[in-house]
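Q: Is it fine to ask for two folds in a single conversation?
A: Yes, each is treated on its own. Send the first.
Q: Here.
A: Result:
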Amino acid sequence: MGEGLAYQEFQSNGITIRAAVAGQGPLVLLCHGWPELSYSWRHQVPALVAAGYRVAVPDMRGYGGSSAPEEVAAYGMPQLVGDMVGLVGALGETRACIVGHDWGAGVAWAAALWRPDLFRAVAALSVPHRPRNPAGPPLALLRKAGLETFYWFYFNREGVPEAEFERDIPAALRRVLFSGSGDASPDRDMSLTLRAGGGFLDRTEDPAVLPGWLTEADIEVFAAAFRMKGFRGPFNWYRNIDRNWEVMAPWQGAKVLPPALFIAGTRDAVITSPIGRGAVETMAQHVPNLRRAVMIEGGGHWIQQERPAEVNAALLAFLAEDYPASI
């Protein structure tokens, strides 16, 4: 993933976390999302190290070389944030900037909300901060709105999405990574709603030629990890969505106070929906120290892989202002 980078195993929050660690300086944690690995940050690590930071890039709980508990409840937000708190301690550090993409962004937002003493700055890619809706749990609200074809419901069916994705792991990863990217054709990009009775991959495309930012060797890195661990752990993150809503009750109305950065591609399906656009537009109300929202024209969901130069520039500018390498 970068020169001088070595993977280590750490005991954190009762499990083993495998993380790549490199560099010297203030600590930056890079938290990947679904369905990825620490490898997703391969383009960011060298830039951060060169800028004077110590970088830790974990395989998140359920992924790669980290522990993958069987129980659904083991993947709630307190456990996920606790893993990152424990990792900071295991590294001998007392502060960090936490950076997350996709589900990793959710972890980063929660970590900054719950532990601003530890996580002094936060950067989120693709998933904006969404305050807890007091009206009710997310799945209940979606069901009430008649949106039961939304992919969250499908991912909550234990064993069903696992079987779909594990049938042909490389093909599943190619489809998801390509169809969620800015390179997908507008009429074939990844949909977050499913056809009745269909699977998640039915509306994705297996490209004849990979885009320039993704190689067959990259696909194999991801596929090898999922052959080893399967997809139960990653899907269990989704099976805690309503439980996370319950856990967040004490923070109802609380604001994320550390300095913050948001980055996303303009073709990311997470932010092109009315709900996603609304979350981006109102984010500063709930994240008062949001420095900027960087929208990368034509970028898709896998923005740190698709557009690494632009992501690195935005991230380094934010860090220089709010979490400098030299104090």
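Q: Second one now.
A: Result:
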Amino acid sequence: MRGKSKLVVNEAEASSVRSIFRRYAELGSVTLLKAELERAGIVSKRREGASGQLAGGKRFSRGALYLMLQNQLYRGEVAHKDQIFPGQHEAIVEPELWRTVQDKLAANRRERSLATGAEAPSLLAGLIFDSDGNRLTPTHAVKKGKRYRYYVSTALVSGSCCEHVKGRRIPAGDIEGLVLDRLRALFASGVEVGDAVAPLGLDASIQRALLDRLAKLAERWTKLASLELRELVHSVVQQIRIGDTQVSVWLDRTALLPSVMSDAARKPTDGVPPVEPFVLSMTASLRRAGKGVRLVIGAGAVKAIDDGLAALIARAVATRNMLLAGRDDSIEAMASRLGVRRDYLAVLVRLSYLSPEIVRAILVGQQPIELTPTRLVALSRNLPHDWQEQWRLLGFARA
């Protein structure tokens, strides 16, 4: 808070700020940071205004996080008329962490400036085809200010879909996440990598070096920049085929070595005759979820975190904690103080008693494809106390 002549550090808030800085330094992405904070139920500071109404306590927007990560106050400085001056308050972010965060922010700005248009090129552009060999084109739609990306059959883009009943419209995030996860699993598996490069006839020392480098690449996978990932994918993937129940990724076996051994004096694959691609196959199909379509992996779990569901769970837990704190005598009193409908708070309180197993499944993206935020709210009116009954009501399938 602010004193008469200088800022005074609130240690609880300072600890939260340092935690956000450290997590961004690890993730290197404001988008990933925002999603993680939402899943953890971390919101902005709550303040009570003069009228008694609460302000703050909201999910962090990307803009707010960018401002926080660049706020000179946290490094013990103040900004005035585009100039930076030493402050009279203590820094709450250590210099090394501050530099790391600023370097990552600057690197991401450079990536965006090099990207095509306002958004970086789609990860799988030019690589993805349907089962008939027709290329899928990256496109997007904006709904209520939110941008949704897809890979769409050329027939659908050109308006001639009536002639092509097999036209596809695949959520870009779903298919990109599936392909990246499968590549990471491949690189982490010495057995699979060995199978992939077996036809190349590598000597033992080169194969050991390859396995080691790919394993290390898999370990730092989540820290790779988006353009770095795109370059890697395009160097090893020949094409991706989308079938009715299966996704196949065709890899260039010989490209695996140069992609991770660029410092070799001579490419180990020089003189190796052409070999058939190495194919990774995954069970997946499109299924409607609410008003949209999702790519369902394996036996029916979404395998993609639904930010709306995660945020709903976080609000439910926060509401129950607020009620149990004892400031309000009833849900009606809390609703009146916060200026929201009683029914809305009642839904959140009911959802706060979901079984821990269901909550964990939602937070890691393993909920049934049909379980959207709207459906969860509707089902909450009949939510049983028994956790096994909750599991069945919400459509979770036992293995």
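Q: Anything structural to flag on that second result?
A: Two points. Residues 95-114 form the longest helix (20 residues). The first strand starts at residue 47 and ends at 48.
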